[in-house]
Amino acid sequence: MSSKWIALGLAAGLSAAAALPARAILPLQHWQTPNGARVYFVENHDLPMLDVSVEFPAGAGFDSPEKAGVASMTDGLLNTGADGMDENDIARRLADVGAQLGERFDTDRAGLALRTLSSAKERRQALDTLARVLRQPDFPQAVLEREKVRLIGALKESDTRPDTIASRNFYRLAYREHPYALRSAGEVETVEKITREDLIGFYRRHYTAQYAVVALIGDVTRAEAEAIAVELTRGLPEAAGAEPLLPAVGELPAGATRMIGHQASQAHILIGAPGISRGDPDYFPLYVGNHILGGGGFVSRITEEVRQKRGLAYSAYSYFSPLSREGPFVIGMQTRRDQAGQALEVARSTLADFVRDGPTAQELTAARQNIIGGFPLRIDSNRKIHEYLALIGFYRLPLTYLEDFVKNVERVTVADIRDAFKRRVNPERMVTVVVGGEEEAKP
Prior knowledge:
Blueprint: H1 3-12, H2 14-17, E1 28-32, E2 38-43, E3 49-56, H3 70-76, E4 81-82, E5 85-86, H4 87-96, E6 100-105, E7 110-117, H5 120-135, H6 141-158, H7 162-175, H8 188-191, H9 196-206, E8 213-218, H10 222-233, E9 256-260, E10 266-274, H11 283-295, H12 301-308, E11 316-320, E12 328-336, H13 340-357, H14 361-374, H15 382-394, H16 401-410, H17 414-424, E13 431-435
Parallel strand pairs: 2-8, 9-13
Antiparallel strand pairs: 1-2, 3-7, 3-8, 4-5, 6-7, 10-12, 10-13, 11-12
């Protein structure tokens, strides 16, 4: 079944879609390989292409404060040398068959993704290259030193920018000793300490078949997909214990504000706190509610109050970023330095009003229509569906997640949103960072 027809089917009857059998719209298949890897597959012969990724619990959250940046560097150097191939050999083998190989890296997960033609010769060479890179990375010393120099230069430059300063301080205040407080790229002083042995040790601990999630969509059969998953996870390191898990995120004991002086003409403001994890039962009330609060663009309350009515900021927004543990809830905006205090007061007041009273029925109706109407665009290509397959697999979401999405949005009520926000968002226990304020502070 092609992605085009999947999207058209959803667009033609989104309300009815929730009542259909799950695989009538998105024929998602799931199984485990003999070595324990979890596989998620959609067969689609519309295009002669295959998208495949292999991901592991190996994101930035698994770094240590002393060696922040190891996780990112490990993922970034996977395809710079492996099994007798240097980075030029790997690039040439992929280019010869028109394949593309990219890194997959975020706070929770890391791995590689491949897009290749599905014809036998091209597919075989591309998949063989990916398998060798995953199975036997070299982490060349010369490449590591080169990348450390490049990254340190980039970090030093980034650390002068107000948006970077705001983000670093926000995460440090919101997550304190938790690994989510660490910058994914690391710090200058931690990157300087990274050794090849650090990369090898991290790879052996996290890049194992037992922890792997393989996501495939494209022009292959189930039998071919099974063989591909086995080949890509064969020979990976053996698990040395239980799957790596991140520690719980503690609640903020109190609110905190940090004003940081900067010469930028625009003040950068971030307000927020730890929010929700993937699979949280409050996800849909909070997701729909946030669309009304600050995630719906020009029709959201924060944009209306901060920008439209008062002209205090060009961009004002809010979002939840669910992770394995409680990812952040964030309100962000940029405004003139002399308007920072007023913009901050309006944003805080808007949030407090929303938490206290919730949305109106009219706001909820408009939000539902907007979210549901835009849903087919989320899965109108193999690449987008592939992203969801990887997400569903890594976070162990229901196989019917996409088919149930519309139904879950439709069932959210004003009372649900009000209840979820009152329980999960405390305006009195939030961190606030203003870069461009009156007090100087170190980033």
